[in-house]
């Protein structure tokens, strides 16, 4: 076999690339030291683009020089993203959570201090975590958040499953329209949609007006500032996240399996319980995760629709940060929250991975 | 009864008085404007292995699905063992189906797949398990009872599907392309396995297939379908030797077809004038009038090729061998007749050391008048 002739200039490519890299860096430096006259905003944008390009080129150089396959570059960017915007903030939170609160800027103690004798003193303690355990407020907030998220997830599942099933079984042109309708609410701001619910639920809102007009009730129902309103808000907001993974799962379900079950004497109900439901379990798990995880840390919906006694961890977190200005305790609250959510997910992942792939 | 009992037992369709086990009466199925099955009537007898044979889209699968209860006929009636199926849903029918894709439940072990139907009858788990294992033994899969379907080979899955469809001892087993997903060698082996199982259980089988070899091997009788209509029903030999239409003659095996007109009537041998072969003697067929257009079907293996003019034969034409293909047990020749018409001839290779006719040889092609089948449609 002859060498592939698709890359005849492969040996020249690094040269061009290096010249290009030098040009990019030179231009970036020229901007940095105001050698070019540009509007500040344009210069800023251009600088960002130039440095990103330079970084990518350097990465290419490095991967070639080290003989590493370039494939890893494809995942390098998302990994970098996760590192910068997830792992680093998490570490920052962790670092603050072991500090002491103090009146300063920033409002927590430094990690180390020079003692009077010049020795290095590390200031770190788990007191904030102990405090979380000792105060019933936090335990109750966690439990109540779990309860609200769990009940909301169950309702989202009960409503979402039949919808997803119906969409998955619908004939093609209708199916696309139905899917579009599921996604449609995302085109409006989440905040606006939650506000719209106030219009429905409040004392002189749409629901009360209709029920009073129809003579069903004499006194308006109290729905705003109750747990019910929070449930409605959460289920409504996160329903698409339940429907979409369920739909993706159910649409793959082979209709012949359902026919086979029927042929072997299973009624439609039994077919659903023995075939459809077990086979859609991955979709149920995925959908439930996508609802449960954001619901447990939900702040906006309970703040807008819930009452003063709706205790959720998101609100506690907000209060610690902004009302008490106790950053270390707030950080500890966030870390505990994260661990409580992440651990079950990791366990579930490992369970799913253990099952033999189809 | 005047007919011998044994004949009625093995070939009940030859007995006009025999009661059919499955009666399909004027069944029509329309999907929107398209007619998938068009006014089909068919009787199938107990213990038969009936093959519905046809190309894709001919309506054979739709007919099968109506028997299973997955589709509702637009018109007509289906009787199974005397019972009208119109109001009986699929889960209540005395039929089971083996699906083309096998449709094994991926989340259940082989054993649970087979036991599934028994549990739906309300059988206890232990008994259902025992029966399922018994069934798996019959298809030589008892060692794989604990496996999941995706851990099996294609042939093993096929046998699980068969066991699952048979475990409830249905009155009628419907098989949709049962061997379609198997490779050639396995398919041939499995054909006889299927016949063995069918005969040992005595269950009536209806098999849908597009593979004529499969249909010929398996079937007691074949129904050839096209365009939603059953073109001909008969035993494999009948279908091959005495097709009633050009479609069937052409569909089953290969055939050389010649158009001609009926010559003057003669007492024991008729003549048909053809452009390609000249005047051809054919076995007498009743109901033909002089000058009528007919078609002569001549199977490739009924034609003999010789280097010299065969003696005592009137039905001879001359030709040139353009092409030959050596298959092993036989050779296929493409011969150009003097008027330019191409015909196909196969010769069986019986002797190892004969000197076979080969390319570019001028040969004589001859046949026996009895080999010619006269078709009017």
Give a description of the structure.
- Chain A has helices at residues 13-32, 40-65, 71-97, 127-134, 136-169, 172-183, 190-201, 206-213, 227-250, 255-263, 268-279, 281-296, 300-305, 313-323, 327-354, and strands spanning 112-114, 120-122.
- Chain A has 358 residues and is mostly helical.
- Among the domains of chain A are: 13-68; 135-325, MetI-like fold.
- In chain A, strands 1-2 form a two-stranded antiparallel sheet.
- The longest helix of chain A is centred in the middle third of the chain and has 34 residues, at 136-169.
- The radius of gyration of chain A is 28 Å and the shape is globular.
- The two termini of chain A are 38 Å apart.
- With 377 residues, chain B is α+β, with helices and mostly antiparallel strands.
- Chain B has helices spanning 5-10, 60-68, 110-120, 125-138, 154-166, 184-201, 212-218, 236-241, 246-251; strands spanning 22-31, 34-44, 49-53, 75-80, 83-84, 95-98, 172-176, 204-209, 221-226, 229-234, 256-262, 270-274, 278-282, 293-298, 303-306, 316-326, 330-337, 342-348, 362-367, 373-375.
- Chain B folds into 2 domains: 20-244, 3-Layer(aba) Sandwich (Rossmann fold), CATH 3.40.50.300; 254-375, OB fold (Dihydrolipoamide Acetyltransferase, E2P).
- At the A-B interface, helix 10 and helix 11 of A face strand 6 and helix 3 of B.
- Chain A: Residues 142-348 form the ABC transmembrane type-1 domain.
- Chain A: The chain crosses the membrane at residues 42-60, 72-92, 141-165, 177-198, 228-248, 269-296, 327-348.
- Chain A: InterPro entries: MetI-like, MetI-like_sf.
Short description:
The complex is a heterodimer of chains A (358) and B (377). By secondary structure, chain A is mainly alpha-helical.
């Amino acid at each position: 076999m002859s060498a592939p002739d698709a890359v005849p200039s492969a040996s020249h490519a690094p040269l061009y690339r290096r010249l290009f890299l030098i040009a990019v860096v030179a231009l970036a430096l020229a901007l940095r030291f105001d050698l070019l006259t540009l509007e500040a905003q344009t210069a800023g944008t251009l600088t960002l683009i130039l440095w990103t390009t330079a970084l990518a080129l350097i990465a290419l150089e490095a991967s070639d020089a080290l003989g590493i396959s370039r494939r890893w570059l494809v995942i390098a960017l998302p990994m970098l993203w996760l590192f910068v915007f997830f792992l680093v903030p998490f570490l920052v939170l962790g670092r603050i959570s072991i500090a002491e609160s103090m009146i300063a800027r920033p409002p927590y103690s430094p990690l180390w201090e020079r003692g009077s004798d010049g020795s290095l003193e590390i200031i770190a303690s788990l007191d904030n975590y102990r405090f979380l355990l000792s105060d019933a407020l936090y335990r109750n907030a966690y439990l109540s958040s779990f309860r609200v998220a769990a009940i909301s997830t169950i309702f989202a599942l009960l409503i979402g499953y039949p919808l997803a099933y119906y969409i998955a079984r619908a004939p093609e042109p209708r199916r696309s329209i139905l899917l579009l309708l599921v996604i449609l609410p995302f085109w409006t701001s989440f905040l606006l949609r939650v506000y719209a619910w106030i219009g429905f639920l409040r004392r002189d809102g749409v629901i009360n007006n209709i029920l009073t007009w129809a003579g069903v009730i004499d006194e308006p129902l109290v729905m705003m500032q109750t747990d019910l309103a929070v449930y409605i808000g959460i289920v409504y907001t996160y329903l698409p996240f339940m429907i979409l993974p369920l739909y993706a799962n159910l649409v793959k379900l082979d209709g012949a399996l359902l026919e086979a079950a029927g042929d072997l004497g299973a009624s439609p109900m039994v077919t659903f319980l023995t075939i459809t439901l077990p086979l859609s379990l991955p979709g149920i798990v995925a959908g439930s995760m996508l609802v449960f995880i954001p619901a447990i840390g939900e702040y906006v919906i309970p703040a807008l629709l819930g009452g003063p006694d709706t205790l959720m961890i998101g609100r506690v977190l907000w209060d610690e940060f902004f009302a008490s200005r106790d950053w270390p305790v707030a950080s500890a609250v966030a870390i505990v929250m994260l661990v409580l959510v992440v651990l079950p997910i990791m366990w579930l992942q490992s369970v799913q991975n253990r099952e033999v792939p189809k | 009864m005047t007919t011998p009992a044994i004949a009625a037992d093995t070939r009940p369709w030859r007995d006009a008085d025999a009661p059919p086990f499955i009666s399909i009466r004027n069944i029509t199925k329309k999907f929107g404007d398209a007619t998938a099955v068009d006014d089909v009537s068919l009787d199938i007898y107990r213990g038969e292995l009936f093959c519905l044979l046809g190309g894709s889209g001919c309506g054979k699968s739709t007919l099968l699905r109506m028997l299973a209860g997955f589709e509702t006929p637009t018109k007509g009636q289906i009787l199974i063992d005397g019972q009208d199926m119109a109001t009986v849903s699929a889960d209540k029918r005395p039929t089971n189906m083996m699906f083309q894709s096998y449709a094994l439940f991926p989340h259940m072990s082989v054993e649970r797949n087979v036991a599934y139907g028994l549990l739906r009858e309300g059988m206890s788990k232990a008994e259902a398990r025992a029966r399922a294992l018994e069934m798996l033994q019959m298809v030589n899969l008892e060692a794989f009872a604990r496996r999941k379907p995706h851990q099996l080979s294609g042939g093993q899955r096929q046998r699980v599907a068969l066991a699952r469809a048979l475990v409830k001892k249905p009155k009628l087993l419907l098989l949709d392309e049962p061997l379609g997903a198997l490779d050639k060698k396995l398919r041939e082996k499995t054909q006889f396995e299927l016949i063995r199982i069918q005969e040992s259980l005595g269950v009536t089988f209806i098999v849908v297939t597009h593979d004529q070899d499969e249909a010929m091997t398996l079937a007691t009788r074949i129904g050839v379908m096209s365009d939603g209509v059953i073109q001909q029903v008969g035993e494999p030999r009948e279908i091959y030797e005495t097709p009633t239409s050009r479609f069937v003659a052409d569909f089953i095996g290969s055939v050389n077809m010649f158009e001609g007109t009926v010559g003057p009537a003669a007492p024991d041998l008729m003549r048909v004038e053809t452009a390609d072969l000249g005047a051809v003697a054919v076995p007498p067929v009743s109901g033909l009038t002089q000058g009528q257009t007919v078609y002569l079907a001549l199977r490739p293996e009924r034609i003999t090729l010789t280097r010299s003019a065969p003696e005592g034969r009137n039905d001879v034409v001359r030709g040139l061998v353009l092409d030959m293909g050596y298959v092993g047990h036989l050779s296929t020749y493409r011969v150009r007749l003097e008027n330019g018409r191409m015909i196909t001839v196969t010769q069986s290779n019986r002797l190892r050391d004969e000197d076979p006719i080969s390319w570019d040889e001028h040969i004589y092609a001859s046949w026996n008048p009895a080999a010619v089948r006269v078709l009017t449609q």
